[in-house]
Amino acid sequence: TWTTEAFVEEAIREVRAKVGDKRVLLALSGGVDSSTLAFLMHRAIGDNLTCMFIDQGFMRKYEPERLVKLFEEQFHIPVQYVNARERFLTKLEGVTDPEKKRKIIGHEFIGVFEEESSRLGPFDYLAQGTLYPDVIESADTNVDPQTGERVAVKIKSHHNVGGLPKDLRFKLVEPLRKLFKDEVRKVGRSIGLPEEIVRRHPFPGPGLAIRIIGEVTPERLRILRDADFVVRDEISKQGIYHDFWQAFAVLLPVRSVGVMGDQRTYAHPVVLRFVSSEDGMTADWSRVPYDLLEIISNRMVNEVKGVNRVVYDITSKPPGTIEWE
Ligand code: XMP
């Protein structure tokens, strides 16, 4: 029978046999796959592993700090933290088209990845948190026709981007490639990852940037980050976080009139998007209690400066998508 302990031991042996004393680069994303991978790789090869975390500036409140802290203080795995926030924001100035935003973020990510990997490198291998379904999906694209070996052609969290330049086509080490998501979660839990990471809702590579409709500005990011925090905080407190496939806030670039005390307000509406789903391909809007909506709405308007209205999305997928961009 399959046990997490047996898997971990076997994966460590396999990694050691494959990479020997070569150097390996790993890009942490904050999700369960790359976090579990980092732990395994570090157990297998220690200092020959370099964990890099590129902060695009689009993660949720406290997430980057917590991730770095978890790895450095609890796991004693050093993390190369790359603060690229300004750089991504600058590139997105004036950009409103959703696909353009994704492209720019993806390309910028590869640019930063390239610079940082040559600064920290050279590396022989790239460790990726490829899972079994990803292997099937990329069956031929990731194989070098000359050697038959799997090589990195894309960064896992930025599927939508064209691909890695030739000189970044590291050989891959993918110790999670035989696992399904629920198995990675089991392994993640067994090595002591917090539930916050193990059962995190799916979060897109471009992060909060595609949940701000239209142009991304520092002020809008601040508003959405605070609004997103209210959603997560409230459903976690009520113990219902895991009742949803995803539950998040979307910031609209329009403003509407409201009133607070004896003051007229003119501020942004926030959309609540709560869905249930099996795999993200189709989804149902969640029939949440009115009381929950009321609490979130009150907190949102009172705690998040710049928001004066909250609306609930009652569109399933199809015809809607889960994200708004
Ligand atoms: P949609 O909006 O297409 O989303 O119904 C389906 C699932 O995919 C996630 N998603 C993304 N994930 N990069 C990602 O890594 C992206 O650009 C992206 N866009 C959507 C979305 O959160 C949902 O789980």
TrEMBL record:
One GO term describing the cellular component: cytosol
Catalyzed reactions: XMP + L-glutamine + ATP + H2O = GMP + L-glutamate + AMP + diphosphate + 2 H(+)
Biochemical pathway: Purine metabolism; GMP biosynthesis; GMP from XMP (L-Gln route): step 1/1
Residues that hold ATP according to the record: 29-35
Enzyme Commission identifier(s): 6.3.5.2
GO molecular function, one term: ATP binding
GMPS ATP-PPase domain residues: 2-200
Keywords: ATP-binding, Glutamine amidotransferase, GMP biosynthesis, Ligase, Nucleotide-binding, Purine biosynthesis
Its job: Catalyzes the synthesis of GMP from XMP.
Assembly with partners or alone: Homodimer.
Annotated protein name in UniProt: GMP synthase [glutamine-hydrolyzing]
Naturally occurring in which organism (per UniProt): Lyngbya aestuarii BL J
Gene: guaA
Residue range from the parent sequence: 215 to 539 of 539
